[in-house]
Specification:
CATH topology: Nuclear Transport Factor 2, Chain: A
Shape: globular
Number of strands: 6
Largest sheet: 6 strands, mixed
Radius of gyration: 14 Å
Mean pLDDT: 96
Oligomer: single chain
Order of helices and strands: HHEEHEEEEH
Number of domains: 1
Number of helices: 4
Structural class: alpha+beta
Strand order of the largest sheet: 2-1-6-5-4-3
Helix content: 25-40%
């Protein structure tokens, strides 16, 4: 039987995939912090208020609306969750794809901190240059 936080993460990512950013954010604490690594245009630290804009709006702009996230696996317990995902898009010069891990701190059943760990940071930086 899976942990309830695993299902919470799956539901949050399903909402995000449908474009329901508000439903995704309902799974987050008010003070969640998103940490995106690298030197690309989406790199940085974002608050909950900055998630939709500038973070996701930049993703949509740079990918020309083609960004797709496929959840490969989810594991979670009372305090942490990990989402393994594949990101795909077309940046105009052709298709881009990379695998990444999203590591969450979970507090009281809500997502409290997000850290992204791309499998290949060079590919990640190139994707978001």
């Amino acid at each position: 039987m899976s942990h309830p936080n695993e299902q919470m993460l799956r539901d949050a990512y399903a909402a995000f995939a449908r474009g329901d950013v508000e439903r995704y954010l309902q799974s987050c604490t008010d003070d969640i912090v998103f940490h995106v690594p690298g030197r690309g245009r989406v790199a940085g630290t974002y608050s909950r208020a900055q998630f939709a804009s500038p973070m996701i709006s930049t993703v949509i702009e740079l990918s020309r609306g083609t960004f797709r996230e496929t959840v490969l696996d989810v594991v979670a317990n009372d305090h942490h969750g990990v989402v393994l995902a594949r990101h795909e898009m077309d940046r105009g010069s052709g298709p881009v794809s990379y695998r990444t891990a999203h590591v969450y701190t979970i507090r009281d059943g809500k997502l409290a901190e997000f850290r992204e760990y791309p499998e290949d940071l060079y590919a990640f930086d190139a994707a978001w240059a």
